Amino acid sequence: MAEAVRASRPSLREGEKQLDRAASVLDLGTDIPFREVLRIFARVVSTFRLFKARIATKLGFITVELVFRLMVAPWPGKVVVDHIILGAPIGDASGFPAYLAPAVLLLDGMGPVEMMLWVFLLGVFMVTVFGFTTSRGAGRSPSGAPTGASAGSSGGATALTPQGHGTLAQGHDIATQTENLANMGSGLMAGILGFLDFRVHLRLSQSMNHFLRTRVARKLRSLPMTTLDDLRIGDSVYRVLYDTTSANMLLHGIALGLYSGLLGVVITLSIMFTYFGAAPEVIVLGMLALPIVFLIELPFARMARRRGQASRASGSSTTSNIEEGMSNVLAVQSLGGNEREGERFRKASEESFRRFRWEWFLVLTYRQAFSLALLLSQVVFFIVMAGRVIDGTFTAGDYFVLTYYFFVLSATFGAWGFMYTEWQRDIAGMRRVFFLMDLPAEKARDGVELDRIKRGVEMKGVGLVYPDGRRALRNVDLEARVGEIVAFVGPTGAGKTSLAYLVPAFVQATEGTVSVDGVDLKDVSVESLREQVSYVFQETQLFSDSILENIRYGNPAATEAQVERAARIAGAHDFIAALPDGYRTNLGTVTSKLSVGQKQRIAIARGLLRDARILILDEPTSALDPETEAYLVDALHEAAKDRLVIIIAHRLSTIAHANRIYFLEEGEVRESGSHEELMAIPDGRYREYVSLQAGSQA
């Protein structure tokens, strides 16, 4: 049985190839070249300037924290060991830094119990204000985690995770960890200052993540329709919610970690050179952690990038699978596809977790290498320092203080050698974010501001080829005037919708010119154009809001009386009024109870209510009964008195009264004219089309 299960799973290499092919559609593969890594670093760092006030405040807390932690916190331990436990006289306090000598001299002549009481009171002050004791770490590494006594004593394990402990982050894949990262707040202090520090850090993390989320979401809304067609919704959601948190980790490491590491090293080296110059080998041992760890970790960097990218791509595939299954749930249930969809999701989810396991296997491998390198340096340190205490160079209290400072140096320098590899997984996330942000957007505000449309739309020699190479239109000549109803008619796939998409510039003509009031749309501000175009799509688009707000979505200033009038014209008022909450009914809870025709009428009412000079209706009567259809057609003739109405339809009853009909086949306009003019053409394509429709209805 186990062999059969193993045989049914793709090999790791085959799975990587499949994932690379899937990722290449949007991300150019799972590998990230070194130059691109540097560009991503630079872009993330450039984002920090937008939060310079909060970053400066956070750095201020770090400075206070490190100055007290490194310059004051270790020395009470020396008092306890040398002068309380061993009973050595304080004398002139020559064994202490000059800035602490006055305070230490106050203890001179006191008994052990009295000195211990003062040390205890100092400890209470430290815990109350700073929330730490000398047994805790002394700074942050460039990976953004604590370093120092506690970090070093565990082999550097505490410098490995954002939470500052040696266990995996909450959750078991990238997506389940991101809420923690989006709301990250941390600090080595607790107490009063720690509370303030945490609040500043939390606001900083949330602000940065909010900024990136809104930027990416805004970019998605600004993308051309042809680009949106190539994006999977689930993948886009994954990038907005889960990949953007990578910036918080890079902020935590680059801005906060490097600063605290540099400041901690400067303070530590100053103290050690000044007061422990007789042990230069201790300083050398601490600094050697940098090249040793860097050489050990460097080979893992490229693998970390690939694994991080692959894990995220696989996770986004799982999200997309959920979205597609829910969007098509009725089709799945009606076609008996529950079991098949369940198997699809099972495979996607299994692949996502498998990718995450491989990623963390690599992470734990290079983190263990990091810990072993630090442990090796600690063993050498203990041997060296034991000899210096035995030969009398240092006291037992000095040993305590030097151990503290050594752990600061070794953990910080070791983390600097480790940081490049550690940051690769976050680089993979930011690469996916920047990919979306770099997609070319519509030039919504560029171009001529279009005045209120007076004449209408004209097309000359228009052709359209989609980015994937499909030709939708060729050699289209068209004229549509304000005050007319113009119909696009033809068999399925003839190019009717593509032709209508040219009017609001959802797509751009690849050949010929499309002009409004004589102005080429290539020179027009898209935003000023779409303010005057109302498009009712064939697939009804309703929002999770009240019917009232759905209808006036395009005209928020409309009164309830105007909304009701538009609903009456669209034939929607009666069924809306029959609902328990009427126009206040929330569609987020009742949409599934509305028929397709009812949803379509709400969408039509929304289009009619908007004060637009061009109204485009894509199959507006496909789900309407004949009586409602006739009522709507009469209403459209009324609406066309001061606007251009374009209808895409198959029903003869909808198009027969249009002022001008354009009959399309294979992307070309075969015939144009009124219904009577086209029916008068012997062997005409439109006439044949109408005859076939009449025959099928009979």
Count the DSSP helices.
30
Number of strands: 12
What sort of overall outline do the alpha carbons produce when their principal axes are compared? Answer: elongated
CATH superfamily of the largest domain: ABC transporter type 1, transmembrane domain
Portion in helices: 55-70%
Number of domains: 3
Helix/strand structural class:
alpha/beta
Identify the CATH architecture of the largest domain. Answer: Up-down Bundle
CATH class type of the largest domain? Mainly Alpha
Remind me, CATH topology of the largest domain? ABC transporter transmembrane region fold
Low-confidence stretches: 1-28, 133-169
What is the radius of gyration computed over CA atoms, rounded to a whole number of angstroms?
35 Å
Sheet with most strands: 6 strands, mixed
Residue-averaged pLDDT, rounded?
78
Structural features:
698 residues, alpha/beta, ABC transporter transmembrane region fold, Rossmann fold, 6-stranded mixed sheet, 4-stranded antiparallel sheet, 30 helices, 12 strands, disordered N terminus
